[in-house]
Design goal:
1 helix; two-stranded antiparallel ribbon; four-stranded antiparallel β-sheet; 34% strand; Glycoside hydrolase 123-like N-terminal domain-containing protein; mainly beta; GH123-like_N; 65 residues
Length: 65
């Protein structure tokens, strides 16, 4: 699980730097997802190497498996 947050004054795009070997996960088989959490975030899926949008003043909880 990874928690992200932004206190920037505008929406921010971030890129994760994941050491797949330390996690014991093969990068090409990895799944990065955000579970639906009522009144916090909508469900979503993300690709390794692609930017993730974090809305200003908000955050995301991601599951990496």
């Amino acid at each position: 699980m990874v928690a992200l947050a932004s206190w920037d004054e505008s929406d921010t795009k971030i890129n994760l730097a994941i050491d797949w070997n330390k996690l014991g996960i093969t990068a090409d088989k990895a799944k990065i997802s955000a579970p639906n959490i009522d009144k916090f975030q909508s469900a979503g899926n993300y690709s390794d190497g692609k930017s993730i949008l974090v809305e200003k003043g908000k955050g995301l909880i991601l599951i990496i498996e």
